[in-house]
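Here is the promised in-class demo. Please do not try to memorize the tokens; focus on the logic of going from shape to residues.
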């Protein structure tokens, strides 16, 4: 079962090619995107997530072409950026409700266990402007992981989170990777090993 396919992806910034002719095809599992700072990990993830338009090549998510059928393709993925995208005035609960409303869902069956596992229950009523960086990150992770999307794209998911949350992230990836694809950028070798992830290395 193919969940994410990239065919001859290429990106050029200011006349310099960041990568070219990048092709892969993944079914369920865990893939760690690694490489030096500036190798293009975040750029690749934003292309796959449909956050930034493709320059060269094509992407299909859940069999849906990202350029030709963007709504169906994006419905098949969840995107967890490195930095919080929530409004500062929103509470944790309001943010989660907004994300599920945007996905056309009123509830997420996995949500309660994720809130518990990531230890964010005490922060649900807090506004993002008053949260620590790690707590914001945990809400981003929970919003993506609680979706039923078969493809979960995460930019540096362990950045800033504590050991308990990291253990829960690893457990969620290990448990879910039989049916879903988790593709995440990281510099964290320990997490890659604990998740049993396959490494996709972007050359500098
Ligand atoms: N919109 C843009 N315009 C011009 N250059 C860009 C743009 N986006 C990214 N870049 C450049 O592309 C390169 C790759 O950046 P990217 O953030 O994808 O790397 P990364 O592998 O995620 O790095 P890190 O490990 O530091 O997070 C960098 O040199 C960056 O400055």
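The designed amino acids, position by position:
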């Amino acid at each position: 079962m193919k969940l994410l396919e990239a065919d001859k992806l290429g990106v050029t910034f200011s006349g310099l090619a960041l990568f070219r002719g990048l092709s892969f095809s993944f079914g369920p599992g865990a893939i760690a995107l690694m490489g030096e700072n500036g190798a293009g990990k975040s750029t690749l993830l934003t292309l796959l997530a449909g956050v930034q338009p493709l320059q060269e090549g094509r992407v299909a998510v859940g069999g849906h072409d990202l350029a030709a059928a963007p709504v169906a393709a994006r419905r098949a993925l969840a995107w967890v950026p490195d930095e919080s995208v929530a409004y500062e005035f929103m509470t944790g609960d309001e943010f989660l409700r907004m994300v599920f409303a945007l996905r056309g869902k009123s509830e997420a069956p996995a949500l309660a266990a994720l809130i518990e596992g990531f230890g964010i229950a005490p922060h649900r009523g807090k506004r993002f402007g008053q949260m620590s960086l790690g707590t914001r990150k945990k809400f981003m992770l929970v919003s993506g992981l609680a979706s039923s999307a078969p493809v979960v794209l995460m930019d540096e998911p362990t950045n800033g989170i504590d050991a308990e949350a990291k253990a829960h992230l690893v457990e969620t990836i290990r448990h879910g990777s039989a049916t879903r694809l988790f593709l995440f950028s990281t510099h964290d070798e320990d997490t890659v090993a604990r998740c049993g992830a396959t490494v996709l290395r972007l050359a500098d």
